[in-house]
């Protein structure tokens, strides 16, 4: 059994179950005991707590994504970074991923569905880009489909740091490029990340093709 399930984080967030496992972090379902709202909590895996570079990047990502506010992006409510535990408290979205939806359909989206979903995804990406944040891991499993037909983009990560663009950061820092490729679950080589916002849009187009 996961050692966080049944625990309270900072005396406020009750952890109730594991809902997702990623390369760097696990995602749990829980309850905000102060508001009574259901939440999702992304927790950096314990084996990475001693890795100063990954911890620093997780902290920076946490701060960056907390500034996003858009109806098609999963909301971030709280961020906690300590030596023993690092987590992000987010909106809990009750739905299925676009990947699951495509599997249920047994085929590609219709053109009307493609336009409907792509418009929302592009709106979310435009908002993130306006804040200096690049997703660069847009894929069906990172897009949540709700019952009303709306979508939520989640797992936002790579971003500008200290006013420096992602393109310059990657060009001047090989270690950062390797890190960025790593946290995107191995889907992309670091050289592919240098196109920044245009890369997000290109991947969004491929995503909609199923």
Question: What's this model, at a glance?
Answer:
The protein is of the alpha+beta class. It has helices at 52-65, 98-105, 111-130, 166-172, 174-183, 197-208; strands at residues 8-9, 13-21, 25-32, 38-44, 76-81, 86-91, 96-97, 143-145, 151-153.
Number of strands: 9
How much β-strand is present in the residues?
15-25%
Tell the overall outline. Answer: globular
Average pLDDT rating: 76
Cα-atom radius of gyration: 17 Å
Strand order in the sheet with the most strands:
1-2-3-4-6-5
What is the chain-wise order of helices and strands?
EEEEHEEEHHEEHHH
How far apart are the termini? Answer: 35 Å
The low-confidence runs, each spanning 5 or more residues with pLDDT under 50, are 157-209
How many H/I helical runs? 6
Helix content: 25-40%
Helix/sheet category: alpha+beta
The biggest beta sheet is recorded as: 6 strands, antiparallel
Structure report:
- By secondary structure, this protein is α+β, with helices and mostly antiparallel strands.
- It is built from six helices and nine strands.
- Residues 157-209 have low confidence and may be disordered.
What order do the helices and strands come in, and which of them pair?
Blueprint: E1 8-9, E2 13-21, E3 25-32, E4 38-44, H1 52-65, E5 76-81, E6 86-91, E7 96-97, H2 98-105, H3 111-130, E8 143-145, E9 151-153, H4 166-172, H5 174-183, H6 197-208
Antiparallel strand pairs: 1-2, 2-3, 3-4, 4-6, 5-6, 7-8, 8-9
Helix pairs in contact: 3-6, 4-5
């Amino acid at each position: 059994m996961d050692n966080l399930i049944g625990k309270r984080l900072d005396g406020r967030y009750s952890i109730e179950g594991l809902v997702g496992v990623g390369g760097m972090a696990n995602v749990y379902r829980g309850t905000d005991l102060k508001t009574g709202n259901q939440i999702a909590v992304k927790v950096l895996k314990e084996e990475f707590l001693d890795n100063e570079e990954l911890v620093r990047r997780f902290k920076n990502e946490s701060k960056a994504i907390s500034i996003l506010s858009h109806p098609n992006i999963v909301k971030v409510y709280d961020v906690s970074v300590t030596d023993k535990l690092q987590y992000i408290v987010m909106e809990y979205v009750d739905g299925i991923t676009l990947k699951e939806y495509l599997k249920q359909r047994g085929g590609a989206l219709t053109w009307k569905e493609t336009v409907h979903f792509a418009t929302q995804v592009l709106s979310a990406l435009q908002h993130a880009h306006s804040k200096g944040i690049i997703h660069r891991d847009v894929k069906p499993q990172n897009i949540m489909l709700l019952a009303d037909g709306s979508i939520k983009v989640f797992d936002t990560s790579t971003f500008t740091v200290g006013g420096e663009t992602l393109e310059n950061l990657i060009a001047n820092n090989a270690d950062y490029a390797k890190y960025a490729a790593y946290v995107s679950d191995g889907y992309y080589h670091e050289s592919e990340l240098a196109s920044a916002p245009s890369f997000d849009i290109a991947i969004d187009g491929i995503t909609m093709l199923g």
